[in-house]
């Protein structure tokens, strides 16, 4: 990954998969840890599986010693080139010993062994997924080589008082010279990407847990001293996750200790290393003064996600990286179900679908599109995507829906039993789920191999004479990059039919002798199918894809009034929101076309104003209903994509909504909520904060001066971060001069609090308009800004490029040129981070001509360079096409 692209980029293909020629039964690692230089001695017991030379991966390693079966090899006895060590060995087994030196402090890519924090205070840690282990020692670094690990760590006790590795502790002691050692044995065979060590000055909080099957487990969460008091919520979340997995899937933890470590220097969210999870501090630390409600929920979800991997990922792992969604899609699904159980299920579904539309749909529609199971890659790190994760989870959700609750549980039991200790494939997963239920799930494989979001069209025809309603469903998936022809996929459509008073009708399909429930699921498994419902007295309003039963784009010619019926009456929170989103889309079209008296805009604002006034909708759902699709989703409704015009039209529809509800009722409700303000974390309190924030924004559109004053007051009195940050964002968006002082105040108040400062950078980076670039450039000069920290780079550059459409897509292209320049600088430090930010150029082709030209020049210029990392080169090459 740190190799530059002048080395030939090779494409890895799923079709070329071959099992490993040599596997490793046991591996014994000994680390002599040092910040500048660490020595790693490895002893591998290898077993031949095919008649081929032994090939081990190794990159950036200084080879000090190499021996086979106790005999040191001289120069001509091995080949070391392009990151591969090749040795011809006779016999079917051998013991290979290597000693290498590596340089953690110089590792700015944060892959392999690296330093988090400063040289004098920081600690050492590892990140191996996907291919980081080869930066630590020579090894067949692929997920289908499962080995038993023994790890010994040796280090200076004063500098590295805490020594951790995955597995159970197996002794520790003194070495003399102020040095000490600790050993760990992991009884469970695992692939190298799950290996981890941590060493340094860390504090911990602990909890004694007993699993449902009676194992005593010591849970430890580790962090640096200044933040250790913010780990309590993560510990609570971990305990809840463990109990939930026992209850829901019968899965127990399987070691005597479980460590979780927080670091501020991490490329991704978190990592499920066996027995030693490592977290981006952003997803582990939480306290009311510096974390928002959203962040609390993210901590709960990510802690659960990594814990759930212990079964879906670790005990059963992936055969190769093409199967990444086998563990990620499944684990996201498990995490989403957990969060739905812990919080409100409909709100969780709203949040997940909104994320899918914001992050995955654009990916699926642009040059970076790829199937949930890609068929080729040149840099696997670029495939930790919304498609593999979020769409992957939607596919598991469809399978779970198909089998039903008990059937899915039976299927999962069989999957875990059959493949425990193995590296499996997506076929294995579908087969196990199917076998346990006597079902054939293989049609769903098409979903895994095909990129692009299917369009589902629905056409209803009511026949009064026959008292019948005929619903014709059709599907079509648009061509995507490199995949012109598409096949039909099974699309489960959960549906209800409503009459015009908002009552759900009992459903009887043609050929059935009696009506069943008011909700059922039909499956469209070909290009087109018509479903005929009997005993229907008047043209019904169909409520389709309930619960978002398939990750598709629904095209149905609803009249605004029909959507308004669903928005007013659908008893299911998710579908109510969904009807509101669809109606809001039509209302947006009205505003875009300057049709301020459009029927959709009227229907949308009227229905919401009634719901607002009438009560009956809880605060959390109301806040969601009052939030139309964001600017990024709305680009789909714009032929000529001009972010400026999208923003103007969206603001116009929100202003129309605020006017319809009325400034006075908005103010009144806001004041009520303000009076009830607390920092409590219970769901109603969170919902109140969420709604308050929506109301403040709506007020700003009809009464900017009053809203700014109110927001300033809210900032001053806020009992916690949610209210404080929301108020700051509102003032900064609608009354920027008045924001200077609170922005400076926030900066001083949270000096030294990295996670709070990240939000401070991000909030400002997302402020819309022409000044955005200059603002971001000024923020680069803040002493707390650095290109070396991924969170900081994401918060300033990532937020600007990916979440500030009007700021980033300036017509003069200045922001594109500026970002290109920064990408080159970031890439020299950390290719993974550079590649992720570069995906901001994903949609350039569909911009209006002036912006498109400007973006094209920049993308083409970058893509032509030969001095960039494989990660960045891969993204640019695909985006530029
Ligand atoms: N497996 C981790 C998770 O839980 C993500 C690791 C991603 N690492 C990477 N280098 N892309 O989602
Ligand atoms: Zn994961």
Automatic annotation (TrEMBL):
Protein name: Aminopeptidase N
Annotated Peptidase M1 membrane alanine aminopeptidase domain residues: 233-442
Organism field: Luteibacter yeojuensis
Gene: pepN
NCBIfam families attached to this UniProt entry: pepN_proteo (TIGR02414)
Record's keyword annotation contains Metal-binding: yes
UniProt-listed Enzyme Commission number(s): 3.4.11.2
GO BP terms, alphabetized: proteolysis
Class of the enzyme per the UniProt entry, highest EC level: hydrolase
Any Pfam family hit: DUF3458_C
Catalytic reaction equation(s): Release of an N-terminal amino acid, Xaa-|-Yaa- from a peptide, amide or arylamide. Xaa is preferably Ala, but may be most amino acids including Pro (slow action). When a terminal hydrophobic residue is followed by a prolyl residue, the two may be released as an intact Xaa-Pro dipeptide
Single Gene Ontology MF annotation: zinc ion binding
Needed co-factor(s): Zn(2+)
Gene3D superfamilies: 2.60.40.1840, 3.30.2010.30, Neutral Protease Domain 2 (1.10.390.10), Peptidase M1, alanyl aminopeptidase, C-terminal domain (1.25.50.10), tricorn interacting facor f3 domain (2.60.40.1730)
Stored SUPFAM superfamilies: Leukotriene A4 hydrolase N-terminal domain (SSF63737), Metalloproteases ('zincins'), catalytic domain (SSF55486)
Protein keywords: Aminopeptidase, Hydrolase, Metal-binding, Metalloprotease, Protease, Zinc
Domain of life assignment: Bacteria
Domain Peptidase M1 alanyl aminopeptidase Ig-like fold: 452-556
Start and end residues of each Peptidase M1 alanyl aminopeptidase C-terminal domain: 562-878
Family: Belongs to the peptidase M1 family.
Residue intervals of the Aminopeptidase N-like N-terminal domain: 107-194
């Amino acid at each position: 990954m740190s190799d530059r692209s002048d080395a030939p980029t090779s494409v890895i293909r799923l079709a070329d998969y071959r099992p490993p020629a040599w596997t490793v039964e046991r591996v014994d690692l000994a680390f002599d840890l040092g910040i500048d230089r660490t020595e790693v001695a490895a002893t591998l017991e290898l077993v031949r599986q095919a008649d081929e030379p032994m090939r081990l991966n190794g990159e950036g390693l200084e080879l000090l010693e190499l021996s086979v079966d106790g005999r040191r090899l001289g120069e001509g006895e091995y080949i070391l080139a392009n990151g591969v060590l090749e040795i011809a060995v006779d016999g079917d087994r051998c013991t290979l010993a290597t000693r290498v030196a590596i340089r953690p402090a110089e590792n700015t890519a944060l892959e392999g062994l690296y330093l988090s924090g400063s040289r004098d205070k920081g600690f050492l840690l590892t990140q191996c997924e996907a291919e980081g282990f080869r930066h630590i020692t020579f090894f067949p670094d692929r997920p289908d080589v499962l080995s038993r690990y023994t790890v010994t760590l040796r280090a200076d006790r004063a500098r590295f008082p805490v020594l951790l590795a995955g597995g159970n502790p197996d002794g520790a002691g003194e070495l003399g010279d102020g040095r000490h050692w600790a050993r760990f044995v992991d009884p469970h065979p695992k692939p190298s990407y799950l290996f981890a060590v941590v060493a340094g000055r860390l504090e911990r909080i602990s909890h004694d847990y007993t699993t449902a099957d009676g194992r005593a487990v010591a849970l430890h969460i580790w962090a640096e001293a200044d933040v250790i008091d913010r780990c309590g919520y993560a510990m609570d979340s971990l305990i809840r996750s463990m109990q939930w997995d026992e209850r829901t899937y019968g899965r127990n933890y399987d070691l005597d200790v479980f460590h979780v470590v927080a670091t501020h220097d991490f490329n991704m969210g978190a990592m499920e290393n066996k027995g030693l999870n490592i977290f981006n501090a952003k997803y582990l630390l939480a306290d009311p003064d510096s974390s928002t409600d959203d962040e609390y929920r993210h901590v709960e979800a990510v802690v659960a996600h990594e814990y759930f991997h212990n079964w879906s990922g670790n005990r059963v792992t992936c055969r190769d990286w093409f199967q990444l969604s086998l563990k990620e899609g499944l684990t996201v699904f498990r995490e989403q179900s957990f969060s739905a159980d812990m919080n409100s299920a409909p709100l969780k579904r709203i949040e997940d679908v909104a994320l899918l539309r914001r992050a995955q749909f654009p990916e699926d529609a642009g040059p970076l599109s790829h199937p949930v199971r890609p068929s080729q890659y040149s840099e696997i790190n670029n495939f930790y995507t919304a498609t593999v994760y979020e769409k992957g989870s939607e596919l598991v959700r469809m399978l779970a829906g198909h089998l039903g609750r008990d059937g899915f549980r039976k299927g999962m039991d069989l999957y875990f039993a059959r493949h425990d200790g193995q590296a499996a494939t997506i076929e294995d997963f579908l087969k196990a789920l199917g076998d346990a239920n006597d079902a054939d799930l293989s049609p769903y494989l098409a979903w895994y191999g095909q990129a692009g979001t299917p369009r589902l069209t629905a056409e209803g025809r009511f026949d009064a004479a026959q008292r019948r309603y005929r619903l014709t469903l059709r599907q079509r998936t648009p061509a995507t990059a490199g995949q012109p022809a598409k096949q039909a996929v099974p699309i489960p459509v959960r549906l209800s039919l409503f009459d015009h008073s908002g009552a759900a009708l009992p459903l009887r399909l043609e050929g059935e002798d009696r009506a069943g429930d008011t909700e059922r699921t039909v499956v469209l498994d070909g290009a087109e199918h018509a479903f005929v419902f009997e005993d229907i007295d008047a043209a019904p309003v169909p409520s389709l894809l309930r619960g978002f039963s398939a990750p598709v784009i629904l095209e149905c010619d609803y009249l605004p009034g029909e959507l308004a019926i669903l928005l007013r009456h659908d008893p299911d929170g998710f579908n109510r929101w969904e009807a509101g989103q669809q109606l809001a889309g039509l209302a947006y079209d009205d505003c875009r076309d300057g049709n301020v008296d459009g029927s959709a805009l009227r229907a949308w604002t009227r229905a919401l104003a009634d719901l607002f006034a009438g009560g009956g909708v809880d605060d959390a759902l109301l806040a969601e209903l009052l939030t139309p699709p964001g600017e990024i989703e709305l680009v789909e409704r714009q032929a000529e994509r001009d972010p400026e015009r999208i923003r103007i039209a969206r603001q116009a529809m929100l202003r129309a909504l605020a006017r319809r509800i009325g400034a006075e009722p908005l103010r009144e409700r806001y004041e009520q909520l303000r009076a009830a303000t607390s920092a409590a974390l219970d769901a109603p309190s969170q919902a109140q904060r969420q709604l308050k924030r929506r109301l403040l924004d709506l007020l700003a559109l009809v009464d900017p001066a009053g809203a700014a004053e109110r927001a300033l007051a809210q900032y001053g009195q806020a009992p916690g971060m949610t209210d404080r940050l929301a108020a700051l964002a509102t003032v900064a968006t609608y009354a920027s001069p008045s924001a200077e002082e609170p922005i400076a105040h926030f900066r001083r108040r949270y000096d030294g609090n990295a996670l709070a400062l990240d939000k401070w950078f991000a909030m400002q980076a997302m402020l819309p308009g022409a000044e955005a670039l200059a603002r971001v450039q000024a923020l680069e000069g803040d002493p707390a800004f650095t290109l070396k920290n991924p969170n900081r780079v994401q918060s300033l550059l990532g937020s600007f490029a990916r979440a500030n459409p009007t700021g980033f897509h300036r017509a003069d292209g200045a922001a594109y040129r500026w970002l290109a320049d920064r990408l080159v600088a970031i890439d020299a430090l950390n290719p993974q981070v550079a590649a992720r930010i570069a995906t901001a150029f994903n949609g350039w082709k569909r911009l209006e001509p002036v912006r498109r030209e400007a973006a094209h020049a920049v993308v083409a210029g970058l893509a032509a360079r030969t001095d960039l990392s494989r990660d960045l080169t891969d993204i640019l090459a695909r985006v530029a096409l």
